[in-house]
Amino acid sequence: MKARFGLIEVPRSIASTIENAKLAESVGFDWVGIADSQSLFRELFVSLGAIGQATSSVMIGPSVTNPLTRHPAVMASAIASVQELSGGRAMFGIGTGDSAIYNLNERPGGLRGLRDYVLALRALLRGEPTQFAGREIHTKWIAEQAGNPVPIYISAEGPKTLELAGEIADGVICGMGVSPEVVKLTLEHIAIGAGRAGKTLDDIDVWTLARVNVGADRGALVNEIRMELASTAHHAFRFTQAGKLVPPQFAAAIQRVQAGYRPAHHEDLGQSPNAGLMDDPELLDYMTDRFAIVGTADDCVARIQSIRASGMRQFLFTGFVDERAALIKTLGRSVFPRCRN
Length: 341
What we know:
single chain, alpha/beta, TIM Barrel, two-stranded antiparallel sheet, 13 helices, globular
């Protein structure tokens, strides 16, 4: 399979979101996803509408939203509108929720709630009435475009969520890491879920989430994404570490990061309070090795090819660094052309 590459854009301003999306498309990215965190960043669907008009080929959509802050009928109408505006390039990414809901002093729902929401949304995107929370709901106008429904992707870190994604979603955004043993376990769980629905792994559009930074000084590169690695420690292991291949020597250190994580500073640039939580050098090395692709362009090409050999062939990158445009250009021009096939 040909390698494909995506970018998660945090909409710190509408102008920067448009410019980064246009740049990503021009240098060869296949997908530009927009993060959803209304208390911290610009509004998701306004941002998607803006980049939908500013781009012409990349897939676009929430990467990712949650089941709490929007009723499924509101969500269906919004993403179907993006599908219309973009000429059929929309996708829909959803997880149990993180900073969007923590900053409202809410808590994520369980997998049952995620399942119910996704199934209701899928029916609405087919233009069909459905039941949600004991009430009949509909989005009648979407029937006009039901022949080209928006694909649904579930963001998943743990075994049960990966299996749910394989069972009911069109695609999966895998957040459990990129080390070979983690990739193997991730794909096994997705395949189990797919099997429940009479599908195979080949029927699921699988992407892996990775933190990224490219340059000559590895130490400086890692330091620049310390905040992202703290965010990953907070999110990827928050419900449980069980079944996620966490070495015992890092269990307590990860819990300390989780206890100190401040949602109001989620994905802040620079030396934020959350970046400061990654002060254990051994934990920082472990998180970098498991969740990041960091180094020179040659290093990054080699790492991507190694991950592809493990079975994960599509990559969704963050890279929330000060020189964001430079990173996007470097990835598109110096890394991707050397590891597409």
